[in-house]
Amino acid sequence: MDTARKVLVTGGCGFIGANFVRHLHRTCPRWRVVNLDTLTYAGNLDNLQGIEEGNRYRFVKGDICNTALVEEIFVAEQIDTVVHFAAESHVDRSITGPAEFIQTNIIGTFTLLEAARRNWQDQHRGGTHPLFLHVSTDEVYGSLGETGYFRETTAYDPRSPYSASKASSDHLVNGYFHTYDLPVMITNCSNNYGPYQFPEKLIPLIIHNCLQGRALPVYGDGKNIRDWLHVQDHCEAIAAVLEKGAIGASYNIGGNNEKENLEVVERICDIVDDRVGPLSSGEKRRSLITFVTDRLGHDRRYAIDAGKIKEQVGWQPKITFDEGIRKTVDWYLEHQQWVNTIIDGSYRGYYEKMYGNREILPPQR
Ligand code: NAD
Ligand code: TYD
């Protein structure tokens, strides 16, 4: 992308944000990126090791809800583009403690929108059209049955505190477009996986537990379906939307990789067995699979129709699940030190929090 932009990336030390900052660093040498991240449990400076502070990159540790700080960054850095990732992102945590989701996802988005509104009244600063890209989720659409797909026209029907907070922020973003003409775009993507994902989400959690020989908790009957999107494909989609997307539009981003959870877990077990051999007991890792009580309000199926972004922006996913999951397991195998340093034991996981540890022991034989 040729136009030099001054981008505020929020949540750039998290999973997708860090992959995106790395992507911009590789592909947009003329852009300046300011990364505003308060470093919650999910934020980690190690995710950006190798990206040095200087003309192209600056890190600011701070909260997106801090109006004065956000204003200062907009003014000092002459921000013309916002790519907003910062959020509380884990559904299970939103069930056991929703307050932070309301604060960061709703109030935080509102704070950023207000700063953009104030600072972009004179819209054509330096010839670069300002843009506010809000990164959201397909979970705002609720839950599908066995058939059908989420389209951009699907009615919102969020069903968890997490998805309700994201839906709320999407509505605010749209409200600022219609009311104040703020130049916004929204992307609603499916479940991401890949390097630097905090091991509380299904895929990195299962890889980690496989390597530790621990129980692999599968919620309910394991037949819930997610559409898996490799984070590299997602970063390319966001970059394409920034370049070619229409102001005021939203785009669904999916991986064309619908899988039942149990299938995902079994695939990871087989790849880990293949890479490091069976468990010390000689058993295969599938023996660690443990069905546990279902998540409260567990959405059954998510599936994205990514036709609009393909037609209007020219993006489609390139990474098959088979390729992406092998690469992801290999990345975690090669980055065990990264995993070990971020797991500090402060979050004991949804299951221990809800039920103690009675359900997460591997099946006894
Ligand atoms: P993450 O939890 O890995 O990272 C979130 C980052 O935001 C962390 O670095 C954290 O420190 C930072 N943050 C949190 N609260 C903050 C605050 N108040 N101020 C500043 N920084 C704060 O999340 P992720 O998986 O990278 O998701 C990024 C975005 O993409 C989120 O908006 C999420 O809703 C959306 N999304 C994620 C997925 C997915 O599968 N991971 C799918 C769809 C949409
Ligand atoms: P998750 O990675 O938390 O993403 P989301 O809830 O945003 O889709 O979960 C993906 C799926 O895996 C979801 O259907 C819940 C299920 N799941 C398990 O079965 N066991 C687990 O330990 C976790 C974390 C998730």
- The low-pLDDT segments are none
The secondary structure category is: alpha/beta
Main-sheet strand order equals: 3-2-1-4-5-6-11
Here the CATH topology of the domain at 6-197 and 230-259 and 300-319 and 346-355 equals Rossmann fold
Tell me the overall shape.
globular
Helical content, roughly?
A: 40-55%
Number of strands: 13
- Per DSSP, the total helix count is 12
H-E order? EHEEHEHHEHEEHEEEHEEHEHHHH
Give the second-level CATH assignment, the architecture of the domain at 6-197 and 230-259 and 300-319 and 346-355: 3-Layer(aba) Sandwich
Quick check: average pLDDT? 94
What does the largest sheet look like? 7 strands, parallel
Spell out which ligands are present: nicotinamide-adenine-dinucleotide, thymidine-5'-diphosphate
3D structure, described in words:
This protein is α/β, with parallel strands linked by helices and 365 residues long. It contains twelve helices and 13 strands. The protein has helices spanning 15-27, 67-77, 91-96, 99-119, 161-180, 202-212, 231-244, 261-276, 307-313, 321-334, 336-342, 349-355, and strands at residues 6-10, 32-37, 57-61, 81-84, 131-137, 184-189, 192-193, 216-219, 225-227, 229-230, 250-253, 258-260, 289-292. Strand 1, helix 1 (15-27) and strand 2 (32-37) form a beta-alpha-beta unit. It binds nicotinamide-adenine-dinucleotide and thymidine-5'-diphosphate.
